[in-house]
Amino acid sequence: MSNEQTPPQGEEVPTDLENAQQSPETAAEQEVVELSEDQQRIVELEAAVIAAETKFTDQKDSVMRAIADADNARKRAQGEIDKARKFALEKFAGELLPVADNLERALQVANPEDEAIKPIFDGVELTLKSFVSTIEKFGMTVIDPQGQPFNPEQHQAMSMQENADLPPNTVMAVMQKGYELNGRLLRPAMVMVTRAPEGGVDVEA
Q: Given a cut of 90, is residue 116 above it in pLDDT?
């Protein structure tokens, strides 16, 4: 009689593959799978970092542009304020010019050698000097181009006359002084200009 026992019916006999340890090839395959998952995770993290850096750069650029725009707006506003402050007295200064003109006319017609009116002459002269000194403190300057070359940007030629002692296009007489306010022309000087041998100056300038 044989000693081998027959397994009970209904029970499966374990195969060698099920009872044996995993083969090295299978373990290697699982390691490759796990490594691939890690690599994929690394790729995802790197992509997330790049996206975050890109977003940060964009936001930084937006902030820098906003700062630059705000700075430009501040500079424009400050420029407008400075301009308004600088020329706020323009209309008022223009109204004062006839006062200076009248004082100058009084000095032109008066005889400073006449002892009877000399005190008045001196008083008017002092008043005019004080007036000019005061307006200069607020940015006004007198344009008195006697003997200077004609400048159509500051002078208005009222007449032309030949003169052998002065070069052509030279201011030989100032009929009425001009004025500037902080570099802006308030009124051109009314002048007489020497005549050029050929042509002349633009009396309409």
A: no
What is the DSSP track for the chain? ---PPPPPTTPPPPPHHHHSPPPHHHHHHHHHHHHHHHHHHHHHHHHHHHHHHHHHHHHHHHHHHHHHHHHHHHHHHHHHHHHHHHHTTHHHHHHHHHHHHHHHHHHHHS-TT-TTTHHHHHHHHHHHHHHHHHHHHTTEEEE--TTSBP-TTTEEEEEEE--TTS-TTBEEEEEE-EEEETTEEEEPEEEEEEPPSSS---TT-
Confidence of residue 30 (pLDDT cuts 50, 70, 90): low
Superfamily for domain range 140-205: Head domain of nucleotide exchange factor GrpE (2.30.22.10)
Residues 6+ apart with CB under 8 A from 127: 103
* Domain locations in the chain as residue ranges: 25-88, 89-138, 140-205
pTM above 0.70, yes or no: no
Strand order in the sheet with 189-194: 155-161, 189-194, 171-176
What is the token pair recorded at 21? 């340890």
